[in-house]
Design goal:
Blueprint (H helix, E strand, L loop, with lengths): L1 H8 L6 H9 L2 E5 L4 E3 L7 E7 L2 E6 L5 E7 L3 E3 L2 H6 L6 E4 L3 E7 H10 L1 H26 L3 H11 L1 H6 L2 H8 L3 H13 L1
Helix pairs in contact: 4-5, 8-9
Amino acid sequence: MQMLYEYFRSFGALSQPDMEFLLSHIKKGKLNKGEKLIRANQTVGSCYFLEEGFLHYYTHNDLGDRITLKVISPNYCWTEIEGFFYQKPTFDECVALTDVRFYELKKTDYLAIKSKNIELSNFIQNITEQILSAKVVEEKKKSSMTVEERYVDLLHTHPELVQEVPVHVIASWIGTSRETLHRIRRRLRVA
């Protein structure tokens, strides 16, 4: 739980009793490679902090092809936003690409934490805003890059992800085909 504790501390100071109250509402979980964390048509009632492993968050297009929305890496807090905040069933799915260890905060506990006091409510709001802001920045950055630039950026920012995650998932995530990604990788090795 040390990684989660440090993650929370990165958002600012919180009194020890409030930190303990926050952590007491979070439960540890694990998935084996291939197990689903989220299934289509499910209402997502939890927020997750990934401690170890990689998750593949994806949807399907009208042709039934799997489209990667996000690869979730360790030390990252994530949820399917519409399901969590608005209790809408999702069309998306999330599966463990490797063995995964995570922490889970259920929506009822999230609301209990926010209602405890103004300090905790502001702290949770700050985390939520920063996560949403980071998502917007990531999408904006991604939209202004070529596929090759997205891959090079991924190599620099998440080298462990490139080693652990299957090529077809990375290709889908950066918006290209597996074959094009293989050509990019060959060209980069030669350069």
